[in-house]
Amino acid sequence: MEPFWTSVREATLQQGHLLPDCWIPEYPADFAEHTDETRIVQADQADLIVITQTCDLEHGKVSLIALCPVWSIDAFEKAQASQGRGKAGKAWQDYWNNVRKGRSPTLHLLASPTAPTFARAALLVDFRAIYSLPLGYLSRHASQLGDRWRLRSPFLEHFSQAFARSFMRIGLPSSVPEF
To answer: What is the greatest pairwise CA distance in the chain?
Structure first.
């Protein structure tokens, strides 16, 4: 199997960089209702992948980097079960095969960097959540991580195209009738 990932150590960020344990803000539902000037925001850690275009990063065109969460298959299934959307055995297998084939435009599977031939080790990118974090924070975090993973070509382009398909979907009120 052709490897999806390459190990990198450089401080510069590119699209397809996998950044584990990033701090992300979690805003409470009543965030805008506070009348004082001080707001307290909780933060949680998540594994994220850079979706901002490499050319924008290289040319300093952005101060905030767009990222999507990355889940292990097991963690995603547990989260779904805790929200009452769990499945059983064969139903999960069918679900993952549909995601793998691109039939779920808001989710994207990537082979594991450490166990690429083991399907259950695959990583799930969730395009339904997009975070914007400061370039300075992410650059420091990446430097502190040392060795980390970045998608290789052509898997990077496939990932980028999957995000574009997810982002550019248009819901029509009706369609051409069936023949």
So the answer is: 60
